[in-house]
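call fold(seq) -> tokens
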Amino acid sequence: VLDLMQTLPTFVYLIPVLTLFGLGNAPGLIVTIIFVIPTAVRLTHLGVVSVPKSIVEAGEAFGATKSQLLWKVELPSALPTIMAGLTQSIMLSLSMVVFAALIGAGGLGTEINRALGSRRIDLGLEAGLAILVLGIV
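ret:
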């Protein structure tokens, strides 16, 4: 399912979402979630799987239960990779702004589409730089 979500072109799942939910913010949010979830899931899985076995064995040796191993050993050890997944998800959601504006989601993507339609480089750069600043923050 994650491979399907990552390899489908954006416009392919824009059409059914648009048909089911119409124009507006809701389909923009759904399309953004479909676009972003695979990266977060994959990097979280990678972080948890790449926890050194010695750390897990040490937790087991001290009598930790499965849930204690997950919450107090594996997740803290995997936190850098999970945070990388979070930042990548934020960047991907910001890249989806322009596509979401095509189905009526509004926001800065609307300004970029307006700049493309009217060939106004200054308006496009302004909106693009605003998205860039959001990504940096």
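The longest helix spans residues 66-95.
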